[in-house]
Amino acid sequence: MTDTPTVGEAVPATQRGSWSSFLKSIASFSGDLSSLTAPPFILSPISLTEFPAYWCERPELFAAIADAKTDEDRMLAVLKWFISTLKDQYTSRNESMGSEKKPLNPVLGELFYAYWPDKNNRGKTNLLVEQVSHHPPITAYYISNPSKGLSLQGHNAQKTSFSGGSIIVKQVGHATLSVLLPSGGTEEFLITLPRLRIDGLWYGSPYIELTESSYIQSSSGWLSTIEYKGKGYFSGKSHSFKALVTPPGSSSPAHTVEGTWHQTSKDVKTGRAFHDVTGAKEEATVADVEAQGEWESRRLWRGVARGIREGDFETASREKSKIENEQRQRRKDEAAAGTKWQLKHFAHVDSDPTYEKLGKLFKASPPTEDAYVFQHNPPFADMSTTTTEVAK
């Protein structure tokens, strides 16, 4: 008989002692919490390599960026798309699993390939993800809609700590969006990432709140500054935000958008609706597990994911340990042979020139940041064409 928690209850009754021990270990730990092993019942059955899919689970909004006619309209389209990705990234697991879950920590070299098909002339959107580092965990991704002239490249890492009864997550990394203009030129957008605060730990029902600010800076000079607040600020609701959209060379916003990022928002000046994510999202199309390569996420973690979904935590833990032990041995073998793991799709650069150039416009901190550059190699033969297909 499995011991599955009810919706809204993260900790099964028989696992509460283990959860209490885990909370004590968090409270007394002084380093990066990502190195701690979480109890299987609080794990998500999904690897962190799948998380970049959240950028495009509303692919029509991503495609709409290319249809904007002016610099101002493009910034608003980018902001609308970005805000609309937040619900899927940060609250969807609460809704589907009853509480926030810790994603599976990917192994070095883990891969995830997916796409969203062309519908209503929005074009096909492709996603390629590679785990480019294990310690610390760093996930690199490349998303493109070739027929619309759109591509998004970025990486994400997390530095976690414990403070005031909450887990604080500093997201390290950024994304750059490139838009091919009708003139033949390219407009670029630098997108920074918000910080997270995981609350509800002591009740056994963790949930995410976004904090502080993130930025979207266009090479045209337009800037969106997004401020995140929880209960008691702005609208007095959880998941509240306010975005100030300012034109080049100005400190006075041309647009102010307020609302809750997991539901709806409006343009304060006009009163018009801005974004609405209360409707269904669109899941990515992914090859069947049996057709995937051994390094692809869903095939690699299928035994662990099955155990978690069925509430068979003993099997999940055993399968997870098997994968982790294999990885430790692989690293030992590489060290003994004097070799280093070779990335498949990305090349690391110490300083991203786009980040440095656009970051100067709003005094980004830090002023420089590294990046992982997509090498345009298989399974996407050429992501700049309209004939790109995901290998199956």
Automatic annotation (TrEMBL):
Molecular function via GO: oxysterol binding
Gene3D superfamilies registered for this protein in UniProt: 1.10.287.2720, 2.40.160.120, 3.30.70.3490, 6.10.250.1430
Basic and acidic residues bias (residue ranges): 313-335
CC annotations in GO: cytosol; membrane
Disordered, as annotated region: 313-337
Record-stated family: Belongs to the OSBP family.
UniProt name for this protein: Oxysterol-binding protein
